Amino acid sequence: MSATDDLVLEHRxxxxxxxxxxxxGAADGPEPSLDDTLAALAALGLPPxxxxxxxxxxxxxxxxxxxxxxxxxxxxxxxxxxxxxARIRGLARRLDVAALIAAWPDPERYGAxxxxxxxxxxxxxxxxxxxxxxxxxxxxLMSTSGTSGAASACLHRTSSLLRNAERHxxxxxxxxxxxxxxxxxxxxxxxxxxxxxxxxxxxARVVVSGPPFSPATYVKQIADHGVTHSSITxxxxxxxxxxxxxxxxxxxxxxVGGDHLPPDQVAxxxxxxxxxxxxxxxxxxxxxxxxxxxAAHAEPPRRYASVGLPLPGVRVWLRERPGxxxxxxxxxxxxxxxxxxxxxxxxxxxxxxxxxxxxxxxVFRIEDGYLFFRGRLSDFVMIRGEKVSLSSVRHTALTLPxxxxxxxxxxxxxxxxxxxxxxxxxxxxxxxxxxxLRRALNSLLLPSERPRTVTVTxxxxxxxxx
Length: 466
Prior knowledge:
Elements: H1 11-19, H2 34-42, E1 51-55, H3 60-71, E2 75-78, H4 85-95, E3 97-102, E4 116-118, E5 121-125, E6 139-142, E7 152-157, H5 158-171, E8 179-182, H6 189-202, E9 205-208, H7 215-225, E10 229-232, H8 234-242, E11 253-256, H9 263-272, E12 277-283, E13 290-295, E14 309-310, E15 315-320, E16 328-333, E17 340-343, E18 352-354, E19 357-367, E20 370-376, E21 380-383, E22 386-389, H10 390-397, E23 405-412, E24 418-426, H11 433-442, E25 453-458
Parallel strand pairs: 1-2, 1-3, 8-9, 8-10, 10-11, 11-12, 24-25
Antiparallel strand pairs: 3-5, 4-5, 6-7, 7-17, 12-13, 13-14, 15-16, 16-19, 18-19, 19-20, 21-22, 23-24
Helix pairs in contact: 2-3, 5-6
């Protein structure tokens, strides 16, 4: 695919892509064809440009429906399958959604007389949708970065997502003949664009799995299906390097995205997989979504804290703030940026600073062209007269043995001063875990960074955190 073309999905190539894809544990029997799925969606009578919300778990059915919607000129929006019906109704109103496709939708909850069967689920036509479609064929809606079910979305073009996928595939060494394990939620742009569309574009095959994530299942699926390319998050990295299964040795290339991976864990991953490829990536849905990549296996340790160099066709710079010399908000100019953001949230309009220019809301420094993440703009607060990076506190907490997740909260005392509270998720925490971890955390933090309270909760071993 040429980066200068207006890229489109092709029926023949989509059919071939689905035919070479697989799903562990899928029911025996023939899979519905692409044409079967196209016919079922066309029978709904929706005109091109109609938005369709897909609340489905990871599966080949989900992929087939999503790609079929695009081929028909519909505008898909993938959301978590557990999204409550009230939230779906809110999304439908805000985004002018014409239909919902889910595994077992109750039409009465949406004011519809019945559900229409489609391969892999059923469709409910939403009565709230009226008038001409507000979108056009080739549009795509994607959930906003950092949200979990909020009534907002990013509007993209299919062509720009395919272009971003092509660039990302080149940066992480994905190629024809690779087998790509997709175990991250397909309603996140990281999985749908950086894995599915990237594999489609370069001729790789995908194995559609999870969530929920299990280290033992992950390692087994890699071995059983000959997986050569896998994308994971820092949460998964910690579970692998600290657990009994260890890191998978058979995968040629691992990519890590979704959050910052501490340099010591980068070093541990590289040491555990000598000669293998490790790519650290940065992106956000608004940018299309991938922005930069670090080929960590080819870089010196001083760059393990970096998320690398911008992708081809991406230009970045810092919008500096008073008192923050050397750092600033990362600005991204790309032909894969969102068309517009649809949201009622305060400040949503600042994201698209100009056509093709995204204000990321992330603070970076840039050294020799390499990007180093420092935190979110909202992550910097004043506590006892000192500027504190909540991102730094979280990353420090995640270096403690057993800590799988850290949540920071800022409160205000009776004296008007801000204070910090920390919640740590730990598997099977002992009774004195809060006291022990507080002592260990305070030993690593500056006085202004130390939380007023530390609480410990049991880690959700089956959950996925973006």
